[in-house]
Amino acid sequence: MSENMEQSFDSPLIPSLPDDLAVDIVARVPRSHFPTLSLVSKSFRKLIASSKLYKRRSQLGITQHRLYAVLRNRSTGDFSFYILHKNLNGYNRLVAVRSLPFISSRARGSCCVPVGSKVYVFNDISALSFDCTSHTVQCIPDIPQRMSYREVNAIGKKVYVIGDAYCHYVQEGGGWMKVWRKAVTVFDTETQSWEPKLVKEDMPVSVGPFWSDSVVMEGKIYLKGCSKRSSFVYGPEERKWEVMDEVLNSKEWEGACVVDGVLYYHDLYKKVLRAYDPKLTCWSVVSGLEEFFAVETGRSRWSRTVNYGPNKLALFFPKKQYGEKMIRCAEIALERSQGGEIWGKVEWCHIVIGDGLFDMVKVVAVTV
């Protein structure tokens, strides 16, 4: 490693130890302690902000999931990035990342997606990426086709942007109906270039083609419509659209995530965490969380789930406490019993932001 290590620190990281050995030691420290380590010295601060440390962690097979949230400020209308940060008192909080850009006020919640250690952001027709190891921003080529009602998902190293690109009118039942043609544009993160635009003209989607959510399962993009007749599945390899399976489409899932190949979402009305296994094509309820949902999320009107690593998810939800609106987050560990039943256990549940001025738009998990 010493051949690749640039001696760019102001002073030795650890006196009497070569810097490459010191980097090896720091690389093994849990990521949550990095903010504290950055206060030790200017050299440590440079190391924590450098890509060298994260490359070494990757070489050692030491990676962690970090959560970034897009929040909308109700007063200004601005969309900003926040990171889930563990405070010195042990509680997790959402902290604004000042070096990251605002998102266009016209962008929807699905306008950002993680790929590796980067998050790709799409504003109207412009696009950029930010590196979560250094919190630096880089512009990428603009989207070749303006779209509305976009959904953005990643499969492997490619980002798929799906949205309404063209509009035409068809005659139906003695009147004219507006029909949208779906465009699929693909950004290759390895070549940093857009692939040729694909347009599917025979999508049977009529007026108001809104999608309430989308996820990736088994290499396909599942787009949940606000009405059951506008829920579809897109297979990138075949470049083919299909109608969503009736069982999966039978639930109004929103704010969902996929963990270990299973889709999870918080059913606000029944106060349960539901799971859909595509291999078994059936829904089930995650056991062991009944008391938690009854006490903590009883009056929540929205929720967001996100993959938080192997067998884990994070659940964000609002709660009024001490007369103030707050956003809480719970880490839930998942385990499948020998009989196939899925059980959940709450590892922690904290108030992550508490001034009541923010709406949560999107949460993404990044591996660093």
Automatic annotation (TrEMBL):
InterPro entries noted in UniProt: F-box-like_dom_sf, F-box/kelch-repeat_ARATH, F-box_dom, Kelch-typ_b-propeller, Kelch_FKB95
Domain (F-box) ranges: 11-57
Annotated Pfam families: F-box (PF00646), Kelch_FKB95 (PF25210)
Record-linked Gene3D superfamilies: Kelch-type beta propeller (2.120.10.80)
Name by which UniProt lists this protein: F-box domain-containing protein
Record organism: Brassica carinata
